[in-house]
Specification:
Blueprint (H helix, E strand, L loop, with lengths): L1 E3 L2 E5 L3 E5 L3 E18 L1 H5 L8 E2 L5 E2 L7 E17 L1 E11 L17 E9 L6 E8 L4 H4 L12 H5 L8 E8 L7 E8 L21 E11 L16 E15 L9 H9 L10 E15 L2 E14 L9 E13 L3 E11 L9 E11 L5 E14 L1 H4 L4 E15 L1
Antiparallel strand pairs: 1-2, 2-3, 3-4, 4-7, 4-21, 5-6, 7-8, 8-9, 9-10, 10-11, 11-12, 12-13, 13-14, 14-15, 15-16, 16-17, 17-18, 18-19, 19-20, 20-21
């Protein structure tokens, strides 16, 4: 609606108001409601997960995450309020997002996720297309599935491999500055950023660790559109009539991360976040340097979509009495629209070795699902069913090797407006 004198008000994928080319504010909401039904084998109730995803108390005590009974629960998985637009000119854009997600049993529980929290807050200066400047708190522009919004996934959630191999080992987001090209304009793009390396809403001085408060995290990415522009949103919703192919490589180096759960420099928010991403083996390794490399590929054509990522993390412990190996992992996933742009069948396989020095500690999952896109990614119903396994060695359990098995069904409704 044009109110005259350059003032506009209306709805366009969000409620917006605009004054000429000087200012625009758009307000958006995203809601995702999920039902999860999980059953666990007996080992989950007796041994529990002592290494990969342990419970971390406010006192920094690590205990096994045991599952002594099955789980059936409803979650408000995501509730997001977004404020976005531009100020002064269309090339100075801003994005602010708040979240208030349920602290659920099977949805990465942490001590902070059931309260309203500043999630994103950044400004992009786009005056130079090949050298945009982003500053604030945001996703660190690393791997493909980390790069894309959770609203644009073809599964109920990211796979555990993509969750675990974030460059800071804590969260997809961090505070810093990034120089990057406009991937909508160029076939080859880059991003290079410098960050605090301790996740969201926190600085290293906030950890009371002056000995390594001058250390930072560095993240770089290069991607190439080989055929057309498949973009980052998952699934071939456009029913592409020509093949689309893109590849990418990424590297992140996080220096001086304090992983201890107690003592000087420890922080429950960081410890719990490390554990909830499946990186529990990093806990209590003292100060570590994390170097994470990733490669990714995506292909789309006539309703078919395939994508994969592979990762290697080097863990350099500064306390040489600590012994932990590197971590490796990959996932492969795909989907096909049996009804173009509407009904999609999907499948995914995850594999992760969280500690290459230990035998029998492999994590895997096999997941299949069905999606019904009512209006693209912004209004959809998703169902998936999978088997998630964690193999634990005798060293991990203190007695004998065992396997934890979870059979999990999830149904999720998403609406974005």
């Amino acid at each position: 609606m044009d109110l005259g004198k350059g003032v506009k008000f209306g709805y366009d994928r969000g409620l917006y108001t605009q004054f000429k080319d000087k200012f625009q504010l758009k307000i958006r909401l995203r809601l995702q409601f999920r039902f999860t039904d999980s059953s666990f084998n007996s080992a989950y109730g007796t041994v529990g997960d002592t290494k990969n995803s342990p419970n971390v108390s406010s006192a920094g005590i690590i205990t096994s995450r045991t599952r002594q009974e099955d789980v059936s629960e409803f979650d408000e998985r995501r509730a997001r309020l977004v404020l976005e637009g531009f100020a002064f000119n269309p090339e100075t854009t801003f994005f602010v997002q708040f979240r208030n997600d349920t602290n659920g049993t099977t949805t990465q529980p942490t001590t902070t996720r059931s309260t309203t929290q500043l999630y994103d807050a950044y400004v992009d200066l786009k005056q130079i297309p090949w050298a945009n400047l982003r500053v604030g708190q945001y996703r660190t522009l690393f791997g493909r599935q980390e790069y894309v919004s959770s609203a644009l996934l073809q599964f109920v959630d990211r796979g555990f491999v993509a969750e675990a191999f974030v460059p800071n080992g804590i969260d997809r987001r961090d505070q810093g500055v990034t120089i990057h090209s406009d991937d909508k304009k160029y076939p080859i793009n880059y991003a290079f950023g410098v960050f605090n390396g301790v996740g969201i809403n926190l600085t290293r001085l906030g950890l009371n660790t002056p000995s390594n408060a001058n250390e930072l995290m560095y993240v770089g990415r290069i991607s190439a559109d080989i055929l057309e522009k498949p973009g980052y949103p998952e699934a071939d919703l456009a029913d592409s009539q020509t093949p689309q192919l893109a590849v990418g490589v990424s590297y992140g180096y996080n220096a001086g991360l304090q992983t201890n759960t107690t003592g000087v420099g420890s922080n429950t928010q960081i410890s719990t976040s490390i554990a909830s991403l499946g990186n529990g083996r990093l806990l209590n390794q003292g100060v570590v340097n994390l170097g994470t490399a990733g490669v990714d590929v995506i292909f789309k054509y006539k309703g078919l979509s395939l994508q994969s990522e592979g990762f290697v993390r080097n863990v350099d412990t500064r306390d040489h009495s600590k012994q932990i190996g590197n971590a490796t992992g990959f996932y492969v996933q795909g989907g096909y629209f049996v009804v173009p742009k509407t009904i999609e069948v999907v499948g995914r396989y995850n594999y992760m070795d969280p500690d290459t020095l230990r035998a029998q500690d492999i994590l895997t999952s096999v997941v299949g699902g069905l999606n019904w896109y009512l209006i693209g990614h912004e209004h959809k119903l998703q169902f998936d069913y999978g088997v998630v396994t964690a193999h634990l060695s005798a060293v991990d359990t203190g007695s004998r090797a065992t396997t934890l098995i979870e059979n999990r069904a999830r149904l999720q409704y998403t609406i974005v407006f």
